[in-house]
Amino acid sequence: MLNTFPSPISAILDQRAEGHSLPAALYTQEDVFRADLDVFFRKHWIYVGLECDVPEAGDASVIDIGTTSLILLRDDAEHIRVLHNVCRHRGTRFLDEGQTVISKLVCPYHQWTYELSGELIHAPHMGKDFDTACHNLKPVHFKSIGGLIYVCLSDKPPTDVALLERVMEQRLAPYDIRNTKIAFQKDVIEDGNWKLTMENNRECYHCAANHPELCVSFIDLDFGFDPETLSDEDRAEAEDHMRQYAERTSAWEADGFPSSAVEQLAGNETNFRTQRLIIAGAGESQTPDATAASSKLMGTMTRKDLGDTHLWGHNCWNHFMGDHAVTAIVIPLSANKTLVRTKWLVHKDAVEGVDYDLDKLTDVWIATTDQDAELVARSQRGVEDPAYEPGPYSRFTESQLDNFATWYVERMRAHGY
Fold first, then answer.
1. Number of domain units in the chain
2. Is the pLDDT of residue 72 over 50?
3. Which of 43, 112, 130, 413 registers the highest number of CB atoms within 10 A of its CB?
């Protein structure tokens, strides 16, 4: 049986070799899983939802992260709130996970009642001297960054989220994510550790062989290539692609659309990367034919040739295009199970069947997510095999995996492991 005698986490971290994948125990041990939840999902900023999850006053969305349950809601004054889903009486949860509509937060156990702002307004049988103001619901640190909701469960959230906020508010402004709607949502539970899910997303080494639908619009050369092993013809094509990238990026930025890569990775607390990517083929959107799925463009967009503004953090990846956006949230469920929640966004006034075709909108990333789930499950079975030992990353196509592993070890060390 695996992990009969778990190694101390610090000793496992010591085993990590630069340029290589992580030791098996970091993907399999239960104590590592609990430490990951504490370090990466409590003490760092994580992406949990969108303003458009709760478009109207009284709309609420509950998100569970480990043993923590959060309520994302829009209060009566139309303000976004994030509150702990825990009654201040005896701890009962108000709401089950998922979407709902409420006028007040009423504890189902003893009917303590709270405004949507979190203020306690009714606590029956507690006596005249009971101070309701001391028992308001606990708020959660959160930021709406271009309409994306990030939370931090720590009392001292990392301050370097300021760069993410500054960069993405500007880059997301033309898409007006705050005024979108969710056209479709799909939850997939991957049979793998959350770090395998994130590693799989940060490289396209596997794309050509595994993602035929995505590769219609995605360019795997964007993720690197080994010039020494390419034929002269393929090398010339790759070099030409890089030249086109520089030219396209320069032109986009001259037109007022920030496009160059911005990274805050190893050596920092908040981990993210963004860049405007070229879309292959017809060049408009990540659809089966690379043309736009929605005729009603996002926000103030008037062009379909502005590529794919990608953004990833340590528990998410996102693609923002002229006609729609795809956003994915990653939440660990156990050492070997991970929830991937994918949402497809369109302009709030877009009408299905009139402005967009739902199948065309969703086909590529439904297929890609299902394919990735199979790959992650295979990876998990591999790291659980006694024959597994950390292998070398390609310095050409997997450098971001090495960076992620380095950041992971750094952050674990910074929090006492």
1. 2
2. yes
3. 112
Cα gap 7→16, rounded to integer Å: 14
Distance between CA atoms of residues 42 and 314, nearest Å: 13
Q: Give pLDDT, residue 2.
A: 43
Residue at 329: amino acid letter: I
Phi, psi dihedrals of residue 342, rounded to the nearest 5°: -110, 135
- What are the φ/ψ torsions at residue 293 (nearest 5 degrees)? -85, -25
Left, alpha or beta for 249 (phi > 0: left; psi -120 to 50: alpha)? Answer: alpha
265 and 343 in a single domain? The answer is yes
- Is residue 322 domain-shared with residue 247, that is, in the same domain? yes
φ and ψ of 379, to 5 deg: -65, -40
The Cα–Cα gap between 141 and 260 comes to: 30
- Report the CATH number at residue 97: 2.102.10.10
Rounded distance between C-alpha atoms, residue 359 and residue 351, angstroms: 14
pLDDT of residue 236: 85
Average pLDDT, the chain: 95
DSSP 316-367: EEEEE-SS-EEEEEEEEEETTEEEEEEEEEEETT--BTTTB-HHHHHHHHHH
* Collapsed DSSP state (helix, strand, coil) of residue 172: helix
Angle formed by the axes of helices 399-414 and 30-40, nearest 10°: 90
| CA gyration radius, the chain | 23
